[in-house]
């Protein structure tokens, strides 16, 4: 216990010294015209205020109050031990997305960096471009279309196993079984339900510690997350070792999943990813590839339960697709392209309730934005809440209206659930397919009522329902 107390004390002292160093640096430049705002308390800044807003589902309110008080274009705060400038609205999004490797580069809080080590999250410049290109050569639409029948099979089996015969279900934990199984299958060819469940429980621990102060002491979220991440890496490493042998002996195919693809594919210079790079990127994509989609699908189920007319329109579209197929025929690429209204619904859900609140950058040189000076080394943040509900961009922004995404859709840089620019979400197409495949299968089998129609959602770190989103199931007439 005494050792632990000394470690905590040392950690606090280091943070204090870092904070003082930053303040001294600022005071050396008293005429620096920084964006308006409040750096909050020493060390912690406004971290707890921000995290409280996330846990209460009030991130948009947190941002809106500061935009009203300081500047609607940009303001400063301090979180996770660093001064941060928050860029707001389409102009702010455009600036950050368009200035990668010019004025800014990717940055994440220390907890993320330590947990995701050698993955794309921590790569910048040419190294990031090469790694992204390797990953996207599997995660592009042309490759993923070949997995659609498999995705449809998994969705059907999931619904038969976990939904059929039930009067009431908890959507959030059950949908996670679907999204995680899908990710395990496409990325690692894991299909054994026991193995998937074992990995899934570790990911729950990993997820809860990914955003926050990186205090690696027993009893903290971060400590549990580190243990879980190491256990997951160990599992992936065992699979990787066996896969290499299977590929050499022709028992596995180079294109069967993401793991095989990364083992056999090099960048243009002939360089292959190291084993640890492959493992850390698989860890990243298993996390990102299933958890954001779990959040979106839970939200879709919530909105469809509240809006029967929207549900009926989605059902009509999906039934028409099924009626054009032979009995038992699985979904194909052309079927998904017909799900335009269903994807507009999912898009409007992500506008109203984005599963991820935003992301971070770092200033790699001094620059000026909106007549303010942004110092080199400062952290930068863009947030979906600053544009998704702006009445100047979306008429009646609190109203659900899937027609917003017809034709040309929203104003550029106003709708950013997947980010934008060179760091746009790698799994955007994968997410689109797993969401639409699930919607296709669930609405044809069931309609449902929400047990708690006013249930709140919180960011922890993804958007999730406070009570798991219980619903009462009724068999569809189709």
From TrEMBL:
<dbReference type="GO" id="GO:0005506">
    <property type="term" value="F:iron ion binding"/>
</dbReference>
<feature type="transmembrane region" description="Helical">
    <location>
        <begin position="6"/>
        <end position="24"/>
    </location>
</feature>
<dbReference type="GO" id="GO:0004497">
    <property type="term" value="F:monooxygenase activity"/>
</dbReference>
<keyword id="KW-1133">Transmembrane helix</keyword>
<dbReference type="InterPro" id="IPR017972">
    <property type="entry name" value="Cyt_P450_CS"/>
</dbReference>
<keyword id="KW-0349">Heme</keyword>
<dbReference type="InterPro" id="IPR001128">
    <property type="entry name" value="Cyt_P450"/>
</dbReference>
<keyword id="KW-0472">Membrane</keyword>
<protein>
    <recommendedName>
        <fullName>Cytochrome P450</fullName>
    </recommendedName>
</protein>
<keyword id="KW-0560">Oxidoreductase</keyword>
<dbReference type="GO" id="GO:0020037">
    <property type="term" value="F:heme binding"/>
</dbReference>
<dbReference type="GO" id="GO:0016020">
    <property type="term" value="C:membrane"/>
</dbReference>
<keyword id="KW-0812">Transmembrane</keyword>
<dbReference type="Pfam" id="PF00067">
    <property type="entry name" value="p450"/>
</dbReference>
<keyword id="KW-0479">Metal-binding</keyword>
<dbReference type="GO" id="GO:0016705">
    <property type="term" value="F:oxidoreductase activity, acting on paired donors, with incorporation or reduction of molecular oxygen"/>
</dbReference>
<dbReference type="GO" id="GO:0016125">
    <property type="term" value="P:sterol metabolic process"/>
</dbReference>
<keyword id="KW-0408">Iron</keyword>
<dbReference type="InterPro" id="IPR036396">
    <property type="entry name" value="Cyt_P450_sf"/>
</dbReference>
<comment type="similarity">
    <text>Belongs to the cytochrome P450 family.</text>
</comment>
<dbReference type="InterPro" id="IPR002401">
    <property type="entry name" value="Cyt_P450_E_grp-I"/>
</dbReference>
<feature type="binding site" description="axial binding residue">
    <location>
        <position position="425"/>
    </location>
    <ligand>
        <name>heme</name>
    </ligand>
</feature>
<keyword id="KW-0503">Monooxygenase</keyword>
């Amino acid at each position: 216990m005494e050792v632990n107390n000394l470690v905590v004390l040392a950690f606090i002292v280091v943070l204090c010294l870092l904070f003082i160093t930053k303040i001294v640096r600022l005071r050396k430049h008293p005429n620096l015209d920084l964006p308006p705002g409040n750096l909050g308390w020493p060390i912690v800044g406004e971290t707890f205020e921000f995290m409280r807003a996330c846990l209460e589902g009030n991130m948009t309110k947190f941002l809106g109050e500061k935009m009203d008080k300081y500047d609607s274009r940009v303001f400063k705060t301090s979180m996770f031990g660093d001064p941060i400038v928050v860029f707001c609205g389409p102009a702010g999004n455009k600036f950050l997305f368009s200035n990668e490797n010019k004025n800014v580069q990717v940055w994440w809080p220390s907890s993320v960096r330590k947990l995701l080590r050698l993955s794309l999250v921590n790569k910048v410049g040419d190294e990031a471009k090469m790694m992204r290109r390797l990953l996207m050569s599997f995660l592009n639409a042309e490759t993923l279309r070949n997995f659609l029948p498999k995705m449809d099979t998994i969705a059907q089996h999931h619904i038969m196993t976990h939904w059929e015969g039930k009067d009431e279900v908890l959507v959030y934990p059950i949908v996670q079984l679907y999204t995680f199984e899908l990710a395990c299958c496409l990325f690692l060819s894991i299909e054994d339900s026991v193995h998937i469940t074992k990995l899934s429980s570790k990911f729950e621990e990993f997820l809860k510690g990914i955003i926050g102060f990186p205090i690696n002491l027993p009893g903290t979220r971060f400590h549990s997350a580190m243990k879980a991440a190491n256990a997951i890496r160990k599992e992936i490493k065992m699979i990787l070792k066996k896969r290499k042998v299977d590929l050499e002996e022709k028992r596995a195919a180079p294109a069967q999943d993401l793991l095989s693809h990364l083992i056999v594919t090099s960048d243009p210079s002939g360089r292959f990813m190291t084993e640890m790079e492959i493992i850390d990127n698989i860890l990243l994509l298993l996390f990102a590839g299933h958890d954001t989609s779990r959040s979106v699908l839970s939200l879709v189920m919530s909105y469809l339960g509240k809006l029967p007319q929207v549900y009926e329109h989605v059902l009509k579209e999906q039934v028409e697709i099924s009626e054009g197929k032979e009995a038992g025929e699985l979904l194909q690429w052309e079927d998904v392209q017909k799900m335009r209204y269903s994807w507009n619904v999912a898009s409007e859900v992500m506008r109203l309730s984005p599963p991820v609140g935003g992301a971070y950058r770092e200033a790699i040189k001094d620059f000026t934005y909106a007549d303010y000076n942004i110092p080199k080394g400062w952290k930068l943040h863009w947030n979906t809440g600053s544009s998704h509900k702006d009445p100047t961009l979306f008429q009646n922004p609190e109203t659900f209206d899937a027609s917003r995404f017809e034709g040309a859709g929203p104003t550029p840089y106003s709708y950013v659930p997947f980010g934008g620019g060179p760091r746009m979400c790698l799994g955007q197409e994968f997410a689109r397919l797993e969401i639409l495949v699930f919607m296709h299968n669930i609405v044809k089998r069931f309609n449902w009522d929400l047990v708690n129609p006013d249930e709140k959602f919180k960011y922890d770190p993804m958007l999730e329902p406070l009570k798991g989103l219980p619903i009462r199931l009724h068999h569809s007439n189709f």
